[in-house]
């Protein structure tokens, strides 16, 4: 598996992903989405605004849940959904690879999965926290074609928010963290030029050094993949 391809930063953001997924399902009279691990369904209105039929599922009932289910064994027929959305769920599953296989099963051909998963967040009743390599690997092993992997907010922000919960003061560490990352980026080129001075590709090596910082220090990884 070529893990290097997961280092590409593709600049795909949430609203773009929603519109992108909807546009690819435009031939459907009314495409249907599954919000896996929906909680109180904060995404319901966004999907309904895009003319989706919305199904929210979670392990326990609350006001946003349409169907109670275990993500490891979804109670839906094969190839039912056009889109599966799941955010901050995989880290809470004891066998997330099983859940991804289930998502692949219930998606239509050409359907998409997108969402996010924790990386540098503190323990929060979680089993697994994923690097972008891990997310890409688990999706590809299920049969998906990965279209985008994106670093999210800073891991230091996530850790600070959880450390001082419920105050949510993670913004305090943003400026010093960005300052440190800026310095790292500035020294990457002279460092690489010195270290790889006999390598004609030193410029690319320098870019690789600092570009991976967004993945090293992110609090979450966002993903978008398609079932071919």
Q: Would you give the CATH topology of the largest domain?
A: Rossmann fold
Which sequence of strands runs across the widest sheet?
3-2-1-4-5-7-6
Integer count of domains: 2
Beta content comes to: 15-25%
The portion of residues assigned to helices is: 25-40%
**First-last Cα distance:** 18 Å
How would the global form be characterised? globular
* CATH H-tier superfamily of the largest domain: Vaccinia Virus protein VP39
Q: What is the H-and-E element order? A: HEHEEEHEHEHHHHE
The main β sheet shows up as: 7 strands, mixed
Rg, Cα atoms, Å:
19 Å
Mean pLDDT: 83
Name of the CATH architecture of the largest domain:
3-Layer(aba) Sandwich
- Helix/strand class: alpha/beta
Number of helices: 8
Number of strands: 7
CATH class of the largest domain: Alpha Beta
Low-pLDDT residue spans = none
What's the multimeric state? single chain
